[in-house]
Amino acid sequence: MTQTKLALVTGASRGLGAALAETLALRGWHVVAVARTVGGLEELDDRVKAHGLPGAGALTLAPMDITSDDAMRHLCLSIHQRWGGLQLWAHAAIHATPLTPAGSLAQKDWEKALATNIRATGQLIPMVEPLLKIGQGTAVFFDDPRAGQKFFGAYGASKAAQIALAGSWQAETVKIGPRVVIASPRPMPTATRARFFPGEDRSKLVAPATEANRLLDEILSRS
């Protein structure tokens, strides 16, 4: 009997993260879905169950804030104790600060962007790396190159720093693992994008479910 594959999806309550978690579950994976929004996680669980697929995997809902070191450390320990290791970590959690001139950036928005997009990522990598090594797994980050664009100061800078950190990890682990992938999603009609581009024609954007399937096909075929 084939052992069920285990994925950790951080930022799983909406947008691409939710689509990835749902798609993985429908492909037979067991998904540990992490997000702060309990309602969003419950809706994700309802959607997976509504499909009623006999070969579908399962969800473990983990409503927690990735900026809480103790919570994430406990979660990673629990994953190790219950399953041993991970085959996939998809890090879709992000804080999108309001668009504003750099000279008018609110301190609380700047600090939240740093805490979520940079600090939490830097704390999570050492926690998750051993699980990925045990499971011969892959870590996936999602690029969104806004650095230097007007009004994107906090988001663009913090997201670029996150991807730079992931890039260093990727270069360091080429020969020893775990495998690290930096993916480039196509524009999707997410709530975050709606905040950034109000009034945009969303009919031209790619559905998160479609993009999740495309990205997973590409990532998993090379793992």
What does it look like?
The protein has 223 residues and is of the alpha/beta class. It has one domain (6-221): NAD(P)-binding Rossmann-like Domain (Rossmann fold). Helices cover 49% and strands 13% of the residues. It is built from 7 helices and 6 strands; from the N terminus they run βαβαβαβαβαβαα. It has helices at residues 15-26, 38-51, 69-83, 107-135, 153-172, 191-196, 208-221, and strands spanning 6-10, 30-35, 59-63, 88-91, 138-142, 179-183. The chain has a 6-stranded parallel beta sheet, with helices on both faces. β2, α2 and β3 (59-63) form a beta-alpha-beta unit. It is globular, with a radius of gyration of 17 Å.
Portion in helices: 40-55%
Distance between the termini: 21 Å
Q: Overall mean pLDDT score?
A: 95
Question: Pairing-aware structural class of the strands and helices?
Answer: alpha/beta
Task: Specify the CATH architecture.
Answer: 3-Layer(aba) Sandwich
| Count of individual domains | 1
**Low-pLDDT residue spans:** none
Task: Give the biggest sheet.
Answer: 6 strands, parallel
CATH class, named: Alpha Beta
CATH T-level fold name: Rossmann fold
Continuous helix count: 7
As laid out across the biggest beta sheet, the strand order is 3-2-1-4-5-6
CATH superfamily: NAD(P)-binding Rossmann-like Domain
